[in-house]
Queue: 2 jobs
Job 1
Amino acid sequence: MFKSNFHTHTIYCDGKNTPGEMAERAAELGFTALGFSGHAYTDFDLSYCMTPEETAKYITDVQNVKEQYAGRLNIYCGTELDYYSTLLPYDYDYTIGSVHYLHLGDDYAEVDHNAETQMNAAEKHFGGDYMKYAEKYFETVGDVAEKLRPDFIGHFDLVSKFNEGDCMFDSSDRRYVNAWKTAAERLCNAGIPFEINTGAIARGARKTPYPSPEIADFIDSRGGFFIVTSDCHNRDYLTCAFDYVAENYGRYNIVDFEEIIGRRKTDI
Ligand SMILES: [Zn+2]
Ligand SMILES: [Zn+2]
């Protein structure tokens, strides 16, 4: 079983628990490492992210927890950047690169809110051609490594969140497949891990992690590698579906993210 999680949200953004409560549960579970990744500031939508003031408090709080657990549990202070985040001048232990919005005209259209929001944006900006919407999503994701220089890629195929069992669109559509292949290939070249993310399972939106098995196979075939995270917003789900991942994604190259951060620090 995986004994760490580097995608963790707290009360400073849209999570339910304090950093201290999360760390307490991680210690009970015998974790070796816990990384916090509060949602970075997006000035056009404050509903889920940390404002600059909240960011400062978050960093102080995580630092205190880090000291409190020294020698027992390695705590890391990271942030989940959105493609359209306003970058604040903080030196994080690591960052996640994610796409939660598409910038369409004057709109920042939310990808992960619900199916209707996606369909409305496809209607308004692409004349109802959902595949164009999906292409735009993967075009943006494909650019995440270059634009944000993150330490890993967040929920690569988030656009499929509401498509369990292909209920919204045909995931074998050639345009969809070509779009994710182009993005995945570009990101494999960046040499950073993709996450196998179980967060939507905890929130009841999906039964399987991101990315889909087809995408994971492709990434694997291109020499890409992975870390396992629960995109945790509630400490009761810190290891949500980790056993499912071990069973179904265990054949892929899953790396120790703590080692990667450690290596990077010694490089500098
Ligand atoms: Zn995210
Ligand atoms: Zn997240």
Note: The chain has one domain: 4-267.
Job 2
Amino acid sequence: MKKRHHILGVDLGGTKILAAVFDERGRLLSREKKATKPELGTATVINRVEECVHEALAAAAIPHTEIAALGIGVPGPIDPKGEIVRVAPNLHWKDVPLARLLRKHLDVPVTVVNDVQAGTMAVAALGAGRKLKDFACMFVGTGLGGGIVINGELYKGSTGMAGEVGHMVVVPDDGPKCGCGNRGCLEAVASRSAIVRRIVNEIEDGRKSVVKQLCDGDLKRIRSRILATAYRDGDELVREVLHAAADYIGIGAANLINVLNPQAVILGGGVIEALGDRLLPRITKSAWAHVIAPTPQRVNIKDSGLGDDAGILGAALAARQLVG
Ligand SMILES: [Zn+2]
């Protein structure tokens, strides 16, 4: 019998599921994608995760008997044992025993991790944080999450919740409602959901935008890539909304810089992957307008270098730790 030495890394987001197979040296063998469809309920989402895993295994031509472990990143707090998803607002989940359910169906050891904490570990091990001891990450996707590395280690806080950068309040009065229940959080004004919500509202109010044609009239289909195309086409509405989001992300970065004095603030996630080259200068400018006592060596604000793979890489690192 062949040794089990391959690893599965899964990134379960509010919009899409990514599943990847890695060999024993951490090389990516295959990577498959599927829409999450959280509105169809927990059981369906878990089925779709399993389908995506099987597709990734088939694409790599690896039988599941050769898998040593599976790591899965989920957008929300996880119990310290890596078994249960406590809350995941973008999936409408509460206390889901995800590790047990996946183990039952896939018959491999499973560990569940917070997606952005895992992504931060991937940035530290393989991305733009590789040579840094102190940095903060911000991942801009369906939601907006992050992670903090202090002295080379992920800072988890007293109850494991540290790094919720998306819930820094940036619009104190009458800001838009956030998934967490508060108002004016960074996530509520700068995540892709927030960006899309604003664009859809404006289009429904009669504003013209190329986005409508790009998504064939179905405004539910607006993804980061459509936003990037519209931005490059010079679409006025998309530019206005994305610039406002970039200014807020800059404020968030400045808050992190002021509090933590990091070597870098590293940006990732679907929005940054699709639009980072266009938005980074604006984010940086906004951050510099809000940092205190800028030091001669300015803190670097940069791309993670991992594209959309930070989540699957971080989940795979966690799975690798599970089996030693
Ligand atoms: Zn919030």
Note: Residues 236-260 form the longest helix (25 residues).
